[in-house]
Amino acid sequence: MNIAVAQSGGPTCAINASLLGVVNEAMRTPEIKEIFGSLNGIEGIVKNNLIDLRAHLDTDDKKALLKQTPATALGSCRYKLPDYDKDSSVYKTITDNFIKNDIKAFFYIGGNDSMDTVAKLSKYMAENGLDIKIIGVPKTIDNDLLITDHTPGFGSAAKFVATVLSEIVRDSAVYDLKSVTIIEIMGRHAGWLTASSCLLHTDGSPAPHLIYLPEAEFSTDKFLSDVAAKLEEYDSVIVAVSEGISLGKAEISKTDSFGHIALSGIGKQLEEVIKNSDIGCKTRSIELNVLQRCCAHIASKTDIDEAVLIGEAAVKAAVLGETGKMMCIKRVSDAPYKTEIFSADAALVANGEKAFPSEWITANKNNVSDLAIPYFMPLIEGECDIKTKNGLPVHLLLK
Description:
Elements: E1 2-7, H1 15-28, E2 35-38, H2 42-46, E3 50-52, H3 53-56, H4 60-68, H5 89-100, E4 103-110, H6 112-127, E5 133-138, H7 154-172, E6 179-185, H8 192-195, E7 210-212, H9 220-233, E8 236-242, H10 266-275, E9 282-287, H11 291-294, H12 301-319, E10 325-333, E11 338-345, H13 373-376, E12 388-389, E13 392-393
Parallel strand pairs: 1-2, 1-4, 4-5, 5-10, 6-8, 6-9, 7-8
Antiparallel strand pairs: 2-3, 10-11, 12-13
Helix pairs in contact: 1-4, 1-12
């Protein structure tokens, strides 16, 4: 049998580690012959645009570089499969290309929308009597996939966010004046990544002094009141805010192919809210943007190691005959940190979102309780040994 693997959705600095896990386990499995990489997600299968991963990853050095390379080495896409009972033409094209290349298992590394593709394809294969296994491998810095305890990519993003905020805290305190710094962090509907900024509290820092998540109701009047109260206590106030916070206006109407609203600019809007108030202090906003998902130089070793393991587990599951599944992480304990990998129906994950727990949001809805810290802490631990050249990290290009 031959296999194919693809990457989809927004990049992370751990998604290539999961790709490596798939390749490593496939190379160790005698019954697997060719290992194809599909360029630009499922679109690569549709267009029969495949590369030979055995040839591209034929040395340990190349594999090590892939593991530390951020973003999607195979490229990505945001392609939504139609329901096949309404339009089956693309399913026939995909199936024809699977058969043409003797592909008996397909691994899709992605988020909840990618699991929609996994669920639809596996159902189509089953209903048409085709023995082609379809397995999902989770990734997202949003950490919003159902069933799994957390997602590969999130731990490294959380480590980056907490690190950057700790540096912003130092920078914001250099002048003897009142100031407010607003940091906009990714998270459309789920505030996991913004909430992880509470990790600064483990070292006794009061910053971020305010944390606002999409899961909690937000009002500009209360926001101004919160900021004013903190300025009475501190000269420099740090605010962490999820990009998905709503000010009650439809500022942006653009959507992607899955119907998700394109978000940005909440930090700048809140900066203007303060400037137009009577608070009267220096105010600035910082949008971390794509840095949150591509900063592999500060990746969490725990995150990268788990990303490899879950890719390997996906291949094992397919060889054992599983299909229509997403590989998941079960947390056994926080300290010592211990996890197990299991599989769940991708259809139960597809198009869903896991919200940040309400019990971990403080009663006044403007911060995160220390109850969340044992969850976050193990996910950011460990340092990766990054290979550099001329003082810069080295990346592997597959395309």
